Every structure is written in C-alpha cells, then in structure tokens.
Amino acid sequence: MRSMRSALRVLVAAAVATALIPAAPASAGIWQLTEGFESPPAPRLRWTNSDPNVCGVPSWGGWALNPRTGSGLASIAALDPGEWCWIARTIQLTPVTAHPGARCGLGVWATVTGRNTALNVEVIDPDTWTYIAFAALTPDGTRNYRQVSAGWTARRTDVVVRFSIVNPAGSGSVATSDLDDLVVQCAY
Fold it and tell me: Residue 121 is part of which domain span?
C-alpha cells in the first residue's frame, strides 16, 4: 500500500509539473516583403506617385543614379520650395488575417538632400488616411545612404507605404531623395 501511494504521488507530481510548463505557440514565423525597385515588373507598375505636373515623375534607376545595391532604386524630388512629392504602394500583410496583432516593421535605405527638407517614411491606414507608423530622415550634408525604420502592431491586412519628400516654402533649394532596399517584415 505504501509503495502504491508513493507511485501515485510521483505520478501526480509529474502531471502537475507538466501542466505548469507553458506551451509553445502552435506556429511562429516571419513574413517578409523585399523591394529593390528593380524589374520585372517595372517599379512604376507597383508604385503610384504624386502629380507629375507638380513634382515630376520618379526615377527608378539609370546611369546617372547611384543604387545602394543591385541596379534599381527610387528617386523622388521636390524641385520648387513649397512642394510635397511622394511615391506610395499598398502592401498586403498576409499573416495578419491568421495572426492579428503581429509586430511589423519597415526598413529602407535612403539619402536626402536640400535645405530644411525631410524624407517622411509613412505607414498609413488606407481607410482613414491616418498614420500607423512614421519616421523622418533629414539631410546630414552627404549623399550617403542611411537606414530609416518604423514599427507597428498590425491591426489590418493592408497598409499604404508612402515616401514623401518635403521641400518647405522659403528653402531656396531642390529637395531630393534616393531609396533602395526596402524590407517590410511581420513576426507572428
């Protein structure tokens, strides 16, 4: 009888210990979209842009431009003071349907030049046109690429990623930005 009680205690202790160990998630993963602004298909087919009559058409690479890696990049410019010019793309965050609340982030390598200008890196809710995430890059006196990042908790499956170059009134300069090697990633 005594050995039976001992065996029962060991069995109960093992069951309690097993119940106290936290269960690992059924699935965990990372979803990622990369954009080098290269073809195919041509980047102009994936990205929309501000009014070309005001801002001009974005450049997507070429002999005069300096991509960070590969052969493509996006180049936007606000030629006149008081202009705000942009490129944008809707991105489907595919894991969010099954994993609401996934942590997402965006990173892009960029340059920005001009006087008192900024490159805005924006993640936008397409229903309300409010910011979900935002970061800005200001000139550092060089044309060197620097990484800009922004993070958010995903509440919807689609977001608009927009890069805006802002050339304030009275700047007296041209505002330009080159963008390359965009990564959008969600962990769930």
Answer: 27-187
